[in-house]
Predict the structure.
Amino acid sequence: MTECQRKTVRAGEAVAPPVEEIDGVGHVRALEPVRQVLRAGGSTTQAGFNAESARSGRPKAHPPVLFQDGDEHKAKRKAIARYFAPATVDRRYRELMEELADRLVAEILQEGRASLSDVTMTYSVEVAAQVVGLTESDLDGMTRRLNAFFAMPPAAPDASAGRFGRLVAALKAVRSIPTVMAFDRSDVRPAIAARRVEPRDDVISHLISQDYTDEEILVECITYAAAGMITTREFISMATWHLLEQPSLRDAYLAAEQPERYDILDEILRLEPVVGHLYRRTTEPLTLTCDDSSYAVPAGAVLDLYIRAANADESAVGPQPLTVCPGRETAAGLRPEAMSFGDGNHMCPGNAIATQESDIFLTRLLRPPLRLDGAPRIEWDELIKGYAVRDLVLVIADEEPPSSS
């Protein structure tokens, strides 16, 4: 099997110290100290995704779960965990995912050509809409509105370029941004109104029961769109790219049972984490250890956690860390996708639904004779150093190689 190399290589990425301070920011690159920070619990707070400026701009509002810390965050995570539990995901959403995937792949084959990012956005929006409760509007229209929102330029000077920077800019002036207002008016408010009359088993109904305002529910819906819909779309595109370029890996994936397929997807995600950096601020002194060295971090320090570098830490994930190697032996207690879903209190609650969603779509997409039409390209989100796969176009492959005559 030809080795699959990491595709999201950035200029300037190089081997660097596992922990170092640069201009007052702690840069943490090795897997073990990254994991120590993420598991530090009450010793750190969320400092990524412009969380601090969002909290200061709306101090009396319920912050979205992504921005919360401490007991408030634990209670919120416990309350929403049932919507994302693996057994719940399989029972409630498998049939929906299968029907959607069958329909979308059939449309690709009928057209003979498709931009995968458009298809996977439709797929991820329809699945997430069911979990969140955005079910009272036209899903095609909601997909267009969310695409417009995530395509718009930064709306405020302090919102760094990128999807999550745009999210925070929207949180600061949520009523003044036309794309957000359209999403609110057409998708969020109808869902809220329906659930005030008849609550259901979804996130919006839970937020209503917790006395969230309509604006706070809108903010949560935008957060779930950014954290769930967009990241899943990018991973499905990246996994498709790897699997179509490596026929032997694709064949192994399609021939495998679900646990082995998940291993392959986890390994691709380890190699290509959608979110490249996470950020924390310490609330008390913290000591990080790596190999035989220790690093003292003072209270109030910002820590930049290099997820891409941690996932490629050979001491934790084994030899050839920049290649796809399903089933590789890793450090004790390390999940196969390493830090790609985070860890500790803020570990992504949607990891089970994202993996199942991706697997169901890919098992259908990869069986027909499809191929890449040209080379995809990578764009970068500068706020979190995350990637976006662009120009990944699928066409029906020739059944026979073209004649040389």
